Amino acid sequence: MDDWLEKHPEVQNIVTAVCDLNGLPRGKRAPVAFAKKALEGGARMPLSALNVDIWGHDIEDSPLLFETGDQDGLLRPTERGFVARPWLETPSAMLPMCIHDESGAPFAGDPRHALGSVLGRYDARGWRVIAATELEFYLIDDSGDELLPVVNPTSGLRPTGGEVLSIRALDRFDTFFSELYQACEAMEIPADAASSESGLGQFEISLAHGPAMKAADDTWLFKLLIKGLARKHGFAATFMTKPYADQAGTGMHVHFSVLDETGRNVFDNGGEEGTALLQSAVAGCLDAMRDSTLVFAPHANSYARLVPGNHAPTGIGWGYENRTVALRIPGGSPAARRIEHRVAGGDTNPYLMLAVVLGAAMNGIDDGVTPPAPLEGNAYAAGLETLPDAWDRAVALFEQSKAIARVLPAELVRNFVLTKRQEMRDIEKLSATERLRLYAGAL
Fold it and tell me: What is the CATH number of the domain that holds 287?
């Protein structure tokens, strides 16, 4: 990791940052001379910093605060090492960190550790998870009292209609997207295809597949990059699910497959249907889907997306090459057989999202369960069991879930529930406009 700074002598400052439960970075900025201390594990941060609400306020009834003296944790660098922060004028780098307690044990409330624990279950079988995410986002103008579609840099006009897969929509923001891909290269984020989506100023970028932890890191860093780079270009970007009530929601799909110790895809049986292991993984994801909704839809605004027939899955079902279902098995080469989980909104925490998806899949594999028959045609008309359509119901299901208890540490479940209940209480104090601006800025 020291080598990175030697290769980038222009860097003047660094930030050490962890991912909190809402997926937001928390940390400190320091001169580059601080890097040695950070690399050697000398950086510290209160454990409670990972358990704050969307405003960054302490959770009032958190046992991490006064009951335990608001103790510090030890920050240790992740294997990612330093990454550039190319949206800033002054050359800067981030050192992504995880947090540990005084004994050196991983802090159970750290979402990255939670994903690491789930991946350990795959490691125990000699397996490796390969994952990729597809991230939708809106470019917006938040300079006034209301959120508005971003102005076309060429014409000075705002879009008046959605432009699905429009090349012209991408060309209008050529400077932004060209700089975005350059920044992704500098940050070693494998950005793949970009497309225009159906919402006003809505786009999607897919990230190439790779080891699951790196995919989560890439997704987290990409979200920070998009928001920072948009500001540099004079507008804003948001991953909130519904900036406009009458426009498409923002989702985050994840694709995953599992390789054994020889590199063989354990979901591949040479045919379209996939192996019994794939079927069990699907069944596990379906079984835990309702209880996992709080991770997939963690905010008040999230539930405006989960409307039947609105290109967001609301029914708990699966199928082959069917985009109306929650779990899609894409076609193509059997060697690339994989599961696409389509439920999460763009506002999800990528570490928690992958943890509950992959943990549920492993629950199904461990239990050897089988799913119901795959769906054909319009899943919205199939009369399926549905996801909870209200935030408070999602919180209750998550808190009480036996499936979630097999995936996430009890401390993290408790902390996340406390966070969401405080947010539910305080969000009621805001007007509709204030809520939109809060989520657009934070997410």
Answer: 3.30.590.10
Amino acid identity at 141: D
DSSP state of 233: T
Residues 6+ apart with CB under 8 A from 199: 138, 162, 244, 247, 248, 250
* Beta partners for residue 276, in sequence order: none
Q: DSSP of 353-419, one letter per residue? A: HHHHHHHHHHHHHHHT----PPP-S-GGGS---B---SHHHHHHHHHH-HHHHTTS-HHHHHHHHHH
Residue type, 131: A
Residue range of the domain that includes 21: 2-107
DSSP, residue by residue, 278-325: HHHHHHHHHHHHTTTHHHHS-SGGGGGT--TTSSS--B--EEES-TTS
Strands 13-19 and 252-259: unpaired
Q: Count Cβ atoms within 10 A of the Cβ of residue 206 and give its class: 0-12 exposed, 13-18 middle, 19 or more buried.
A: middle
| pLDDT score of 1 | 66
Per-residue pLDDT tens digits for 336-382: 999 999 999 999 999 999 999 999 999 999 999 999 999 999 988 88
Euclidean distance between CA atoms 297 and 423, whole angstroms: 13
Contact 331, 320 (CB under 8 A): yes
- Are 141 and 235 a contacting pair, CB within 8 Å? yes
| One domain for residues 152 and 84 | no
Q: Which of 228, 237, 233, 229 is closest to 203 using CA atoms?
A: 237
Q: How far is CA 187 from CA 68, 94, 203, 231, in A?
A: 38, 10, 20, 18
Residue 263 neighbours by CB under 8 Å, 6+ apart: none
Answer with the residue of higher pLDDT: 67 or 113: 113
Q: How far is residue 371's CA from residue 364's CA, in Å, rounded to a whole number? A: 9
Find the helix or strand (DSSP H, E) in which 36 lies: helix 35-39
> Which one is predicted more confidently, 382 or 428?
428
pTM of the model: 0.97
Domain count for the chain, please give it.
Answer: 2
Strand pairing class (25-31; 13-19): antiparallel
- Is 256 strand, coil or helix? strand
Average pLDDT in the chain: 95
Taking the alpha carbons of 282, 133, 349, 98 in that order, is the dihedral positive or negative? positive
CA distance 269 to 246: 43
Same domain, 96 and 123: no
